[in-house]
Amino acid sequence: MVERKKQLYRDTKNGKIAGVCAGIAEYFGWELWVVRIVAVTALVVTQQVAFIAYVVAWFVIDKKEGGKHTSVNPTVREETRFEKRSDGRTIEVKTRVWEAGKPPKQALSDIVNEFRELERDVGSIERYVTSSEYRVKQEISRL
Question: What distance in Å separates the CA atoms of residue 30 and residue 142, rounded to the nearest whole number?
Fold first, then answer.
C-alpha cells in the first residue's frame, strides 16, 4: 500500500474567508473550531502580526481542488453507539474518542463522592492536629 505524503492546502469549501484555518485543521487533524478560536485569539493578542501571517498564508498556500484531495481526516476516529430515546426509537450516535466515557451525571456524582471522601480525610487530619495527643507528641519530639 502506497502512502501519500500529506500536503497543506487551503480548504475553501469548509473555510469562512480563505480556507486557511480549514486547511490547517485538516493537515494536523485538529478540530476546525479550535483552529479558528486560536486564530481569532492570535488576531486579538498580536493584531497586525496574525493578520499579516493569515494574508501571507492565503497567498502562499495552494487552494485545494475539489476531487484531488480527500477531506476525510483519518486521525480523528469516531465510534458509534446506539441510544434509546424516550419515544422508544433507537438512534445512532457518533462520538469522538475524547468524548467517550461516563455520562455527565455519573461523572459529576463520582466527583462529588471524591470530594466528600477528601473532606472526611481533611477533617480527620484537622482533628488530630488540634488534639492534645498531637501537642504531646510535638513536645516529646522537641526533647
Answer: 59
